[in-house]
Amino acid sequence: MAQSRREFLKTAALGAGVAGFPAVARAQGGKIVVWWNKGYYPEEDIAMQKIVKEFEAKHKVEVDLSFTAQEDLLKKITAALIARRTPDVAFCFYNDWQVVPKYGWDDKLTDVSDVIKELKPRYNEKMLEVAYVLNNKTKKRAYYGVPIEAQTMHIHYWRDLLREAGMEDDPAKIPLKWDDYWSFWKKAQEALRKKDPAKYGKLYGIGMTESTRASDTMYNFEMALLSFNGEILDKGGKIVADQPKNKKAIVDTLKFFGDLFTSGYVPPDATNWTDGDNNAGFHSRTLVMTPNPSQSIPAAQFFNKDDAEKKNYFDNMATIEWPDGPDGKKARYLSAVKTIIIPKDSKNQAKAKDFIKFVVEKDRFFEYIKAANGRWFPAFTDVAADSFWKEGHKGPKGQKDLHVPVATKIFLERDNKVFEHYKHPALSQVYDEFAYAKAISRIITDKWPAEKAADEMIERMKAIFAQYK
Amino acid sequence: MSPTTREGGLSALPRAVVGSRLPAVLRSPTLQGFVFTAPLLLLFAAFVVYPMLSGLYAATDPDSYRAIFGDPVFRQTVSNTLWYVVVAVNVKLVLALLLSGILDYPFLSIRVLAALFLIPWAIPALPGILSFRWMLNSQWGIFNHLLTKLGFESVPWLAQHDTALAFVIIFHIWKYLPFWTIIFLAGRRAIPNELYEAAAIDGGGVVQSFFSITFPLLKSLYLICTLLSMVFTLGDFTVPWLLTGGAPGDTTHVLATLAYRYTFAMGRLEWGLSTFAVALPVTLLFIGMLMRWVKI
């Protein structure tokens, strides 16, 4: 009976995946169908189109390349995997946490361990773990994706707003001790509002996303949890959130987010934000600072056509690190490593693997990833060795880049690990359900004590893990 | 046109034309009816009956129900859906019934007002919802701007459950009120004027006429509209999803948005189908009542 139901699910999902049908049908005829995440900047798409043309010329094979925005692409990939009408290659920014753990577990992805083995000498090995997931059918781990680029946590702020508030704006002089750090932005809000209530009356010091609609929330929570020395899973992927040390860290983390919000230094709509809303708030200068898990904000300013001299990028804003933990230890970071998959139902797996290997060749991949202007950090050490990642862009007046090198430092010099959904697919569902954001909401919206919210969250996590047998 | 061709069917044609060439079984009107309606029946079977039955079959997995009933978001969602359907539909239809009376007056100003009144229904939902979101933004929105100008505190309209759900309901009413008003207006215009004239001669006022003539004669239409609107609203996805997306804290989902979230955000199609299946008895009840009422 269960098998029949699955059969139906495949059929029913066809409807949802209908947009990809013509391309998928062509895949049967020898073409490679590639679904690629639409870039944030046109340059990224152009770079990928160039790669595809080169591949077609070299391998004498046609590639059907389509670009789709990430939210829609995830749904398209999900429907295609359930319906078993898949492309040959799919790259979505959500693959790492919403596709690889779950569909690797369900045996719907191609084992690409051979590709990884070939590329292994080039990899930043810390980033490889993300695709090494458990298959519930074979009961073994294998690589079910090819990691290519990563994002991690950065904090961006307006230097000119700090100057206007009469505060220190040099990134090297921003206090990094936990309490001092958060107080610093609160003071900035107070000073600006006091200085010019008409202009800054609705400005907030901290653009912290705390919503069930944004993956940024998950990132923010996990970063803070690391600062409080909390763990959700042990090394083997067993849930340990209810152990006293970890539970205390979860409670402290929830209290931190609750207090930050209720003290009035975070915009009230932050509980309703999507991933782009803190970016929008920052660009419109109604936030002094915002944590953001990628370099999308400075990258957008770099491409800002209204700022020909790139004054915002080079002079008016800066990127700094997450603060040291409350225990005084240097911040530990999490990376989300973006991953290409080959569905198991691909009819052209060999060509698909050739295509991936072609894309990630050093010079070619450098050209592609550089088009994102530092938004992503390469998973390959040879690409990351380029001086661009250490120095970034040069300003028109010789200014130093205050963004890209900070990200590089975080990736290469700090304690940085990948998100742990690779350890167990249930954690991926915990993220899907925005369990952390819901617990924060319990405190903010329902006025629950942090302990009660933590208990509910931990119970829910345990229930989710129990579903995976 | 001869009666033969009006009745249609091969058997109705003169025997000399087809009768001698077709075996008796093929001359059966029932068979001919099936043959001619077969394309439609096949399409109906493929795109309505099969997905529905298969969906129901897939939604019979008890594990899915255990999972969704164990999810605190689901319980909240059922409550939200009830609020949404009961409040939005009833407030909207009562207002529509009353407004249809105003729009029935034959004045130019009323016609202009009626044209303006139709705008929310005519514009696509997305720009309307985005405008609402913008107006409700706690930092820059016009609502809070006015509140703070008047000396009140800002309200995080979409960042707290009660106000967020209230605005989902308000937007629904704003958007769909004109449609139902026009339906009731058409119903009012079908009432013979003589009845109102007779009531006026007997000294009946506006209120008496409404309760003694308008409402009794519109009662059937009103109930049909209520049932139809309940069916539509129960499955409404656009308004709640685009206005709140379930936020804050996944507290403002309705069944349609939660099913979407289960299916596409979490890749759990069977949970999504089970969520819809939970609403199915209510929907079928409404449809059954509707069919009985209009004697289909």
What can you see in these coordinates?
The complex is a heterodimer of chains A (about 475) and B (about 300). Chain A has about 475 residues and is of the alpha/beta class. Chain A is about 50% helix and about 15% strand. In chain A, strands 1, 2, 3, 6, 11, 12 and 13 form a seven-stranded mixed β-sheet that branches. A four-stranded mixed β-sheet of chain A has the order 8-9-7-10. Chain B has about 300 residues and is mainly alpha-helical. Chain B contains 15 helices and no strands. In chain B, α4 (about 60-70) packs across α15 (about 270-295), α5 (about 70-105) runs parallel beside α10 and α12 (about 205-235) packs antiparallel against α15. The two termini of chain B are about 30 Å apart. The interface of A and B includes residues 204 and 432 of A.
In DSSP terms (H or I, runs of 4 or more residues), the helix count of chain B works out at 15
The total count of helices of chain A amounts to: 22
What integer is the average pLDDT of chain B? Answer: 88
Largest interface: A-B, 49 and 39 residues
* Beta-strand residue percentage of chain A: 5-15%
Oligomer designation:
heterodimer
pLDDT < 50 runs, ≥5 residues of chain B: 1-11
The outline of chain B comes out as flat
The biggest sheet of chain B amounts to:
none
* Major beta-sheet overview of chain A: 7 strands, mixed
Head-to-tail CA distance between termini of chain A: 18 Å
Q: Which structural class is indicated by helix and strand composition of chain B?
A: mainly alpha
Percent range of helical residues of chain A: 40-55%
Strand content range of chain B:
under 5%
